Amino acid sequence: MSKLKEKLYKKIEEWRPRTTKLLKEYGDVKISDVTISQAIGGARSIKCLVTDISYLDPLEGIRFRGYTIPEVLEKLPKVPGCEMPYVEGHVYLLLTGDIPTKKEVEEVAEEFNKRQHVPQYVFDILRAMPRDTHPMTMFSTAILAMQRESLFVQQYNAGISKMDYWDSTYEDALNLLAKLPEIAAYIFRMKYRSDTIIPPDNKLDMGGNFAHMMGIDKPYDDVSRLYFILHSDHESGNVSAHTGHLIASALSDMYYSISGMINGLAGPLHGLANQEVLRWIQGVMDKMGGKIPTEEEMQKFVWDTLDSGQVVPGFGHAVLRKTDPRYMAQREFCLKHLPEDLIFKYVDILFKVVPPILEKQGKAKNPWPNVDAQSGVIQWYYGVKEYDFYTVLFGVGRAFGVAANIIWDRALGYPIERPKSVTTAMLEQMAVAKK
Ligand code: AMX
């Protein structure tokens, strides 16, 4: 058994009695009420999910296993000679709750390297798809195609005990996560770089290897590490995380679950917003003939977007009520590496002008920028100008958090998810009864 799995097993054994005790002794304690507007309005803020992998405070932003983004970036072991930590170390943190030592990270990196080989049939399937298929569709299909590899399914069919479900789920997770960077880079090079595929280099860490397979020089390796870490998890109520958890709750395996969560991430109100931001900015740039707009000109573009009934992509959030710290971490990277970049200047003007406009319009509960307002500009700067690929990068990162959640769901025996529906007529009756 690998050191990571051994540690995880120990943590699971320690954790199980806590969940059992809560259920047995305090199962009736009420933690949330549900109003009609929440039932119609996307279950917003109803407390009915449990995760220990991350927690999203509306004002502070995300904490991964209790650590803020600056703490994670500072405390996790760094790849030698690089600014950013190992993605592998972040996976260790998400799974166990502990900051790994350098040696522990190297072991995990080795573990991922061993599992990296992508079966040829995955590439054959990608090649059989029309080349103009959206990269998210390709990514989701490639993951789903590998479902036949699931060890969980084999073990389930062999009749293993519920208590052991987490074990083969963990194996499926590591096998799948190790392959995602190569699949993503393959889609990119096949679609957008004249089908010139760059094979992986097993000596590199995950972020370094991804940059290598994308064919982009330093510091794109650090960009990749930063991206995958920042996008990994945002507690479990967002569409991608919740979709993954929901699918897995039916005991569908990791491949079904991650493929499904990628489909949820592909919506413009969720992960696709990073592509939308760049598309929107390009539209503004075209109108400006490439020059930097004044704040007044930018205000007009923002109002035109709102007046035409569209949302301003990259702004607003269902939970956050301040600037997303994932936005700030990327902004710091931009200020250090690309302060003079034209698109960064656009993004910076938007940072100034959009929040007061959204406040004035009075609809959005959170006028501040989210992670997606800042992420495309970095990719563009390093040559990834095909913005419909951006959500795939989000998806590689998000898979780490969703997989960690699913392993723990299995370990703690969370049951199949099944909220209750009511009809509109029932709501009307309840409403009248309360008057
Ligand atoms: N531009 C214009 N209007 C916005 C807005 C924005 N950026 N953000 C919210 N609003 C509007 C909503 O459309 C809604 O209008 P309605 O009453 O006419 O339906 C109203 O403000 C209230 O919405 P809310 O409660 O503040 O937000 P929400 O929880 O319903 O939705 C989100 C959250 C992110 C979907 C929304 O802010 C939005 O559409 N933002 C733009 C798209 C985006 O950036 N998505 C990425 C989010 C992060 C991520 O998941 N990757």
Give a short overview.
The protein has 20 helices and three strands. With about 425 residues, the protein is mainly α. The chain has a three-stranded antiparallel sheet with strand order 1-2-3.
Q: What are its keywords?
A:
globular; 435 residues; 20 helices; 2% strand; binds amidocarboxymethyldethia coenzyme *A; 3-stranded antiparallel β-sheet; single chain; mainly alpha
What would you say this structure looks like, in words?
60% of the residues lie in helices and 2% in strands. With 435 residues, the protein is an all-alpha fold. Strands 1-2-3 form a 3-stranded antiparallel β-sheet. A hairpin with a 2-residue loop joins β2 (61-64) and β3. α6 (120-128) crosses α9, α9 (165-192) packs antiparallel against α19 (390-411) and α13 crosses α19 (390-411). Amidocarboxymethyldethia coenzyme *A binds at residues 238, 269-271, 273, 306, 311-318, 363-366, 370-372.
Which class of secondary structure composition applies to the elements?
A: mainly alpha
Please state how the strands of the largest beta sheet are arranged side by side. 1-2-3
Mean pLDDT: 96
- Terminal-residue CA separation: 62 Å
The coarse silhouette is: globular
Radius of gyration from CA coordinates: 22 Å
Q: Helical stretch count?
A: 20
Largest sheet: 3 strands, antiparallel
Give the uncertain stretches in residue-range form.
Answer: none
What amount of the residues lies in strands? under 5%
Q: Ligands bound here?
A: amidocarboxymethyldethia coenzyme *A
The arrangement of helices and strands along the chain is: HHEEEHHHHHHHHHHHHHHHHHH
Q: Could you tell me the number of beta strands?
A: 3
Helix content: 55-70%
